[in-house]
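Course exercise 7: structure representation. Students receive a sequence record and must write out the corresponding structure in token form. The form below is the worked example handed out in class, using Cytochrome B6 (64 residues). Read each field label carefully; the graders check that inputs and outputs are placed in the correct fields and that the protein name is recorded exactly as given.

STUDENT ID: A-19
EXERCISE PROTEIN: Cytochrome B6
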Amino acid sequence: MKIGQKVKVYRLRDRVSGSVAEKLAQVGTIKDYKMTDGSGVGVLVVFDDNFATWFFEDEIGVVQ
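STUDENT ANSWER:
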């Protein structure tokens, strides 16, 4: 996955706040990468409403 790509949230690995849960099935844009606590690399995703949060790579997929 690359910065600038459009991605869709397909699943949520952990329990999350309501504002993050609302992004399930939404499309956003990758803005940056995030180092996690040893379980991989995450990506920072920004949505059309300017809400931004990070996801693990297995929670999102590239939109064609």
